[in-house]
């Protein structure tokens, strides 16, 4: 029982990262119809930025948790204005090439300056202990990540359902053509939404720095699973991406602990789930068959 | 049309270069060198995951060996014209294969050095055999280089999976704890390491109470399910042996600390670790961890003198791979000096069975049976942060493992 609870907890923590990244991908895809392959690179920049702020300017974790998402969000907005917005009317192949190229450039710039070796980043002292849950204890830092992410997701959900911009984003995400036809200027929300998505990736990166290896390739490894998460949740579905993020984290953790005698299954479980979901619901769990644009 | 011309011109140039480079050896053998020069080739990872532990700094080490050699022999040196060629194999076997061919055929390389990544290393061994040219492997761990894939022109220099398992597995079982939980990345290297470690642990009277192959690459970056399992096994393991490398090792160690396994009585032993890994994790995260090191820069005055010179050029302290590259280049040049020729067969004959001693090789011997270069190895332990008084001086050597015990006996699979 203890083991099960611990595994569930860990699954949710992994899931929190997937959810944050998938949420950003989903809103970006929804508004811009751009599959952002550079999302992993921004996650990496979040973690690396935290490391650089700490070692070169003495900026602690808590400040980085604000500075990096905001800074990367602004960078994302600049990029959207400079290049990304030119893609929206073109064949999706171009956005693959551009965002993938962007990933390589960002990774190599970091490599050039800091090398490929992982950089050290300690857990903030306030969170370095563990919390006793009676049956088992659990690292404080992981409890913090879980609580923080859940709060953030609730806040985003509130903003999407209770505010005007949220309404526009939801409408534009589900049916951009209809939204435009209703006379809503979708265009002016595109840039801030892109920045917001990038900011979330950066935030996930800062959160990852104390518990994962901080190196130029950390985003490239993770993003493969995140794409599967987005597809499972339903491409463009905001709720779906968050639910699938946590769900996949759980499935992976349970798979690794209870199917460890079947490494082939436990290692590919995400993709097995994805294949199953797509057979059952081709648009993903919470996706909707798209009306041709 | 223009393209055809270009290709023709390029091929002509290749033929000319190859002709110049390859003209010498058949006619000589009596003190002459191919093209009147020696060319050393460093083939390794210059931009990827192994680029810090060897990479460009291995080239620096080889250049140091050349400078020291020329200084030692002066006008009596077999030649003063010694150059280095380098190439990046990106840890890909097919790239390693073509780069090795290019080095031997077109760049006139007499000896290829380094070549980390076992799969790439084995490809280069095939090329060396086919071209009848020398190859000293330093960076790869597989025992196949001196086992079923051994050949007359390939020597295996610094370490291998047997040495690591025998050192860490055996000594840690004897000195730290009997019950092990082994976590390995589920691919060729990890599976090999798991087998070698299990054998060594059992032979030393220990028990492997649990073993798990983690996905490789572990895309989630999370090892907590395995780490949490460890203290709950029955009997409870005293030691967690992790076979992960690079960024995955960093993840395992970070999370090992997060879950405070050391406080729960589970010590950490690492299968393969380089000085650069300790640097990136910080000694604080690894304090108390044991591993087997092929060489340590601050072990004695001789090593330190080399490390100081190396740091002046490279800006960092050398890993064992850097020191071994220096040593391999040095021993090759000495062998050419002694033979008076760079003819591969003559040099091999001079090297086989030779006892050798230098800044890297202590009680070294180049075994004639399988071309394993045996030497003292070390069981090392990462110091607690409070004992780290100077940058990069992160470990203390618990025990010297004598050359005769550190490596396996020649394998029956090897027919030179």
Give a quick summary of the entry.
The complex is a heterodimer of chains A (293) and B (416). Chain A is an all-alpha fold and 293 residues long.
The run of helices and strands of chain A is HHHHEEHHHHHHH
State the end-to-end distance of chain B: 49 Å
- Biggest sheet statistics of chain A: 2 strands, antiparallel
Which regions of chain B are unreliable across 5 or more consecutive residues at pLDDT < 50?
1-5, 11-30
Quote the distance from N terminus to C terminus of chain A: 50 Å
**Low confidence ranges of chain A:** none
**Number of beta strands of chain A:** 2
Percent range of helical residues of chain A: over 70%
Strand residues, percent of chain A: under 5%
Provide the residue-averaged pLDDT of chain A. Answer: 90
Number of helices of chain A: 11
**Order of helix and strand elements from N to C terminus of chain B:** HHEHEHEHEEHEHEHEHEHHEHHHEEEEEH
- Beta-strand content of chain B: 15-25%
How many whole angstroms does the radius of gyration of chain A measure? 19 Å
Class computed from helices, strands and strand pairing of chain A: mainly alpha
Range of helix content of chain B: 40-55%
Count of extended strands of chain B: 15
Chain pair forming the biggest interface: A-B, 41 and 39 residues
Identify the overall geometry of chain A.
globular
Could you state the oligomeric state of the chains shown? heterodimer
Structural classification of chain B: alpha/beta
Organism (chain B): Micromonospora luteifusca
Keywords (chain B): Signal
Family (chain B): Belongs to the leucine-binding protein family.
Domain Leucine-binding protein (chain B): 38-383
